[in-house]
Design a protein that fits this description.
6 helices; Four Helix Bundle (Hemerythrin (Met), subunit A); 72% helix; mainly alpha; 139 residues
Length: 139
């Protein structure tokens, strides 16, 4: 069953309750920040790969927040519902879900984005990362 809420994620065991893991969270955030820092230039040739790196970093940062709160989330759909239902950020969930769809199209179906669409997706990633960073600082 495809999850439609955080509660569905828990019922389907796509989320595991664990003890808070601050060290793992810190490591994931450092890895995500290092990956983001590697991007120097976005070109027509590399934009889809850059997008994948940004998306991966977003997932790592959200996973880090989840680990701090004592959750191990097993899929990207439930990471989105964590953002929406647990963190109360439906606005960011909408952004994340659009990026998740684009990433799945690229990764699983080989559908590369054209350069303009890709640049827009990367800009959405930057907006999402900026907002998630604020959430980490305020936690």
């Amino acid at each position: 069953m495809k999850e439609k809420s955080w509660n569905d994620c828990i019922e389907n065991q796509s989320v595991k309750k664990t003890t808070s893991d601050y060290e793992r969270a810190k490591s994931l955030i450092e890895t995500a920040e290092d990956r983001i820092g590697l991007v120097k230039e976005i070109t027509e040739k590399n934009c889809n790969f850059v997008f994948e790196d940004y998306y991966t970093s977003i997932v790592e940062i959200l996973q880090a927040i989840a680990f701090r709160e004592g959750y191990n989330i097993l899929n990207h759909i439930c990471i989105g519902y964590f953002l929406k239902d647990k963190l109360g950020r439906e606005d960011l969930f909408i952004l994340f879900d659009d990026l998740r769809y684009k990433r799945n199209s690229l990764t699983y179906y080989g559908k590369r984005m054209d350069f303009e669409t890709c640049k827009e997706a990367i800009e959405k990633c930057n907006i999402l990362i900026k907002e998630i960073r604020k959430m980490i600082k305020n936690a």
